[in-house]
Amino acid sequence: MPALHIEDLPEKEKLKMEVEQLRKEVKLQRQQVSKCSEEIKNYIEERSGEDPLVKGIPEDKNPFKEKSSCIIS
């Protein structure tokens, strides 16, 4: 399926697409940023103990740990 380029469409089609998008957006339930940011912060803080990027990966469960080293004598 070829890619659709907006600039290749006639003006009428562009306007139809814009109206369709605006109709979708007007139906969205909106919330205040101050409330959402507080909820996101709480969510992150509650799960930070389980986050391997914060807590780290135990050595015995680390899939990237080298299995053994090679010694040349």
UniProtKB/TrEMBL annotation:
Region feature (Disordered): 49-73
The G protein gamma domain, residue ranges: 5-73
Intracellular or extracellular location(s): Cell membrane
Membrane topology field: Lipid-anchor
Coiled coil: 12-46
Keywords: Cell membrane, Coiled coil, Lipoprotein, Membrane, Methylation, Prenylation, Transducer
Gene3D superfamilies on file: Transducin (heterotrimeric G protein), gamma chain
GO process terms (BP): G protein-coupled receptor signaling pathway
Record-level GO cellular component terms: heterotrimeric G-protein complex
InterPro entries: G-protein_gamma, G-protein_gamma-like_dom, GGL_sf
Family: Belongs to the G protein gamma family.
Subunit structure: G proteins are composed of 3 units; alpha, beta and gamma.
Name assigned to this protein: Guanine nucleotide-binding protein subunit gamma
Lineage: Eukaryota, Metazoa, Chordata, Craniata, Vertebrata
The encoding gene: GNG11
